[in-house]
Amino acid sequence: xxxRTKRLARTDKDFVWHPFTPMKxxxxxxxxxxxxxxxxxxxxTEGRRYIDGVSSLWCNVHGHRVAAIDxxxxxxxxxxxxxxxxxxxxxxxAELAERLVRIAPRGLAKVFYSDSGATAVEIALxxxxxxxxxxxxxxxxxxxxxxxxxxxxxxxxxxGGMPLFHSIFGxxxxxxxxxxxxxxxxxxxxxxxxxRFSLERMEAVLKTRAERIAAVVVEPLVxxxxxxLVHPAGFLKAVRKLTRRYDVxxxxxEVATGFGRTxxxxxxxxxxxxxxxxxxxxxxTGGYLPLAATLTTQEVFDAFLGEAHEHKTFYHGHTYTGxxxxxxxxxxxxxxxxxTSLIASLGPKIERIAQALRRLSKLEYVGDVRQCxxxxxxxxxxxxxxxxxxPYERRLGTRVCEAMxxxxxxxxxxxxxxxxxxPIAIDLPTLDRLLAIVEExxxxxxxxxxxxx
Length: 453
Ligand SMILES: *Cc1c(COP(=O)(O)O)cnc(C)c1O
Known about the structure:
Blueprint lengths: L2 H13 L7 H6 L5 E5 L2 E4 L4 E4 L2 H4 L8 H11 L13 H13 L4 E7 L2 H17 L7 E5 L8 H5 L4 H4 L9 E4 L11 H19 L3 E6 L3 E2 L5 E2 L4 H11 L3 E5 L23 E4 L11 E6 H5 L21 H16 L7 H14 L5 E7 L2 E6 L15 H9 L4 E2 L6 E4 L7 H24 L2
Parallel strand pairs: 3-15, 5-6, 5-7, 7-10, 10-11
Antiparallel strand pairs: 1-2, 2-3, 4-12, 8-9, 11-12, 13-14, 14-16
Helix pairs in contact: 4-12, 5-12, 9-10, 13-15, 14-15
The structure holds pyridoxal-5'-phosphate.
The site of pyridoxal-5'-phosphate has 15 residues, from helix 6.
């Protein structure tokens, strides 16, 4: 190890507390220190190169050091890096808002900026609550799916259904009605029955509580952090129908699925769904800068109009809301979607991943493979027949991903689900190399790791 790497690793361990990381293990291990990127590759301080197989935690779109985005940020720096949206307009944030409304599902008309996926969801749920409040209705409850993930602020955690992350904070959370998400692999019955079961449970809550429910919140098509859980076709559309029938708002959390990830610009497009509120973050700036947006319909927006004495204003904002550098990066990213016909080019990549998953599904210890566009998960189990998993302490998913590092691939699993989320602009040769290394590791290293005590 180079002295410089050693020094940086030491400095990290001395001063940084890492997110979602068991720090005791971290302090005992040697971290990889990333210091550069190039296209779809990460480069560490030792000069080792890794394919960025999870898009730097699901946000990178066009690769790293993309000339057009770099240039857009430089040009914006020559004007201004940031000025507030509280009481002032700003050129880039205005342009981006128009652009987002133009590409968003029909009906979404207004853009409220913030900085992360969690804040985008936090804003959506506060807007939903106040939407009803401003009309003299008291609706403080929400419906969400089990195993859902909407971010880590207290409001977003209240809507999240992942016990491992969320149960500790139980006493701090508001009440949410959790309905089982439709996950055929863990359901005793057919896919159709699975779908119907979830919808019936949702309708049962709506039937008795609709008057108290502000909104239903869902990750459309795929529950990402819950384990790449892909919903059966038709679920989202059916949820939209239910929310209309019972007159509650629908919040769609497209933080992970937005910006081409599922093969369309937004996951909602697959089922022709127009939500009342939509949350965007991760891919918004191409994975460059922290920027998020909550989009709403004109109807939601109009409920916040009133005379000063009526107090209908949405009192929420963040210092960096609508940051100009972030908006410039986002505009450049959207330009790239157009100039490279990115969405139209995804078909062959999605097919390559599908082919690899079909081969992987035959391997020992591979229980299930799931895919939606360029979002995929490979679930490792101890017993393919009973679907029984490995004990959590084995950290098998982590160990499998670590085995890929010396081969030049960087992945991060979700428990024992190996996640494949390459930048959607990845070229076919790099994608093939990534898939080959994943296949080789699951065929050769997984059985060895699974049998070790
Ligand atoms: C990542 C994610 C979030 C949280 O986004 P942050 O930017 O990490 O706060 C919210 N919802 C979904 C669906 C996500 O995948």
